[in-house]
Amino acid sequence: MSRRYDPERRQRIIDAAIRVVGEKGIAGLSHRSVAAEADVPLGSTTYHFATLDELLVAALRQANEGFAKVVAAHPALADPHADLAGELARVLGEWLGGDRTGVELEYELYLAALRRPALRPVAAEWAEGVADLLSRRTDAVTARALVALMDGICLQALLTDVPYDEGYAREVLARVIGREAGADRGGRR
Amino acid sequence: MSRRYDPERRQRIIDAAIRVVGEKGIAGLSHRSVAAEADVPLGSTTYHFATLDELLVAALRQANEGFAKVVAAHPALADPHADLAGELARVLGEWLGGDRTGVELEYELYLAALRRPALRPVAAEWAEGVADLLSRRTDAVTARALVALMDGICLQALLTDVPYDEGYAREVLARVIGREAGADRGGRR
DNA sequence: TGCCGTTGTGTACGCTCGTACACATGGGAT
DNA sequence: ATCCCATGTGTACGAGCGTACACAACGGCA
């Protein structure tokens, strides 16, 4: 036990890394930049995270909790009587409605898994986690499809500058869910 | 007129850039690496593309045509009697079935728009183009939703190592399309 | 034919990067 | 009390980067 001087050093480095990625993107992340942001010497970052991939894994894992927190704040998602499509659309709206840098950050880390195999298990974990959560309301196939559609909707909102449209999201999510959910209220666009 | 020595120099640089991104990712793209790949001097790349963003825009624009080519090879997409969901699922299968580096490359460039505003119009153009194409078979809302869902399905196939499942894709795409398409044939799952 | 400006090339500068490695420090086992 | 080693720090090196800029080459115009 007892990390000698600074037991939270490692955590502070992760936090700093997330701030750096948020401000300058993954491209701007380096042992030096994160050391400066965390106000620790260069050697300290290389000591705790020998490679940048390790740091990214830790950062992604922590960033994922941002979305999880929004989800957790919506207990209605687990209520079998609630309008699932509407709840999901609202969750996305809240998440996307937060400051853009936070959302960009989480997505950038998530998408970085495309090229960095080290991140892929973490990204997969996340997708699986959300799918599992949804599986309590629908079958596995539908759950996976919902995750895919939500991913696609977010992507389009972020890549193009078309603003998020909650009504649209609710409508198409409801189509994927199919008949069982109470998707009768609310307009067809 | 007359580019003096090498009128195709610019195009060869773009091709080289695409190869570099395919092999080493955007992170590995530099004026030098692309110069080496294209077998032209360093100054030549900086002359034709003052900034890397310019080069990426050209590369993304060209890479987009890869998907467009697959789409063009499926005239059934425009046939109002064909099974739209099935056709789309098949197109995705063909595209994802090609060599992974090509697909990764197109997606990496596409996703890079998240952080590089210069790429955003090009990415938006692409999404809009596909949506327009689909609009000839359905309404605008459904078309957008289909693009989103296809994006999400591809993303999951690429980010996690779950292989692409054409039957699954067809099923959930059909749900988004709704009743009108001939989605009655073929099994639920 | 001879000049000129567009087009293309080579080199060098200053910067940031990952990495390595020798050195400090102090808690815990003896 | 002493020693050892996990933990933390500072510095230096070589590589690769974007950029700048002086210079070469040649087609079009006079």
Automatic annotation (TrEMBL), chains A, B:
Gene Ontology MF, one: DNA binding
Domain HTH tetR-type: 7-67
Pfam families: TetR_C_31, TetR_N
DNA-binding region: 30-49
Classification via Gene3D superfamilies: Tetracycline Repressor, domain 2 (1.10.357.10)
Keywords from the named record: DNA-binding, Transcription, Transcription regulation
Family matches, as PROSITE patterns: HTH_TETR_2 (PS50977)
InterPro entries in UniProt: Homeodomain-like_sf, HTH_TetR, Tet_transcr_reg_TetR-rel_C_sf, TetR_C_31
SUPFAM superfamilies: Homeodomain-like (SSF46689), Tetracyclin repressor-like, C-terminal domain (SSF48498)
Record-linked PANTHER family: HTH-TYPE TRANSCRIPTIONAL REPRESSOR NEMR, TRANSCRIPTIONAL REGULATORY PROTEIN
Name listed for the protein in its UniProt record: TetR family transcriptional regulator
